[in-house]
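Narrative summary of target 7.
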Amino acid sequence: MTEARSSFDEEFSAYFAARVHVLRNTAHLLCGDWHRAEDITQLAMLRLYVAWPRLARRDVLDAYARRVVVRTFLAEDRRGRWRREQLTDTPPDVAATVDGDGTERLLLTRALAAVPPRQRVVLVLRYWNDLSVAEVAATLRCSAGTVKSQAARGLATLRQRLGPHFAELSTTSGGDPDAG
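Modeled conformation, tokenized:
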């Protein structure tokens, strides 16, 4: 193995170790399934690894990696790769979460899964990854107006699905999901 290749592998390995958990969490919010999130993250990181030598600007790696995760999710969703799985009203047996109320998290996860994929991507990038409208637009390669309308529609779907369980969702956004 050449020295340049070894340096390349070490650099990628360090980036992978530092960022894979954040990217997997984003993928989980997009798809709602930890196993599928792992698959999406692995595919995204494989694509990132292949592109690594061509990535001249290391200062924008996080944005690029996030874009690859989003595109991988949307591509897999369009292909229907996981559509053969059937969702049920009863969740599988899982370990209890130690960070807060698991019931609240389950309600939110189910409601987020009901949001159409493109709107879900916008919500996750805007409110989970705390990106600006412009950053989301750049990630999705669309206009800021599209991001704003997709966010508004996604939040409306969440509010409808959550009902009175999360009344603060409608009051904290102040009616304008992109005021910040």
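The radius of gyration is 18 Å.
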